[in-house]
Design a protein that fits this description.
There is one protein chain. With 96 residues, the protein is α+β, with helices and mostly antiparallel strands. The chain has a single domain, classed as Arc Repressor Mutant, subunit A (Orthogonal Bundle). 45% of the residues lie in helices and 17% in strands. Strands 3-5-4 form a 3-stranded antiparallel sheet. It has a two-stranded antiparallel sheet with strand order 1-2.
């Protein structure tokens, strides 16, 4: 019996993160990063819609995972919200 490794996500406001399966985290993380690299800047809504379309065989509620992993990537400084955008837009940080 193999136990799937878990990861404790971070939250940009210092709130408690959640434990999720690392394999699911990696799928969503790679999707978000590849999408931002391709688009440059994208609204959260468009990112979510694309995730539902592209990750249609994902085992779980894909939008919940997108929110969770997006917050984790923000907390780690890999992606950021574009200031003063509504609805909020996302991009890679200049450091990543």
């Amino acid at each position: 019996m193999s136990i799937d490794e878990k990861i404790l996500t971070l939250h940009p406001q210092g709130k408690q993160g959640v434990n999720i399966q690392k394999s699911k985290y990696d799928v969503v993380r790679n999707f978000i990063i590849q999408t931002l690299q391709a688009y440059g800047v994208i609204s959260y809504e468009d990112l979510s819609d694309l995730a539902e379309e592209k990750l249609s065989d994902f085992p779980g509620k894909v939008v919940w995972y997108v929110v969770t992993v997006k917050l984790d990537l923000e907390a780690r400084g890999i992606i950021e919200r574009v200031p003063k955008t509504s609805p909020h837009q996302l991009r890679m940080t200049t450091d990543s």
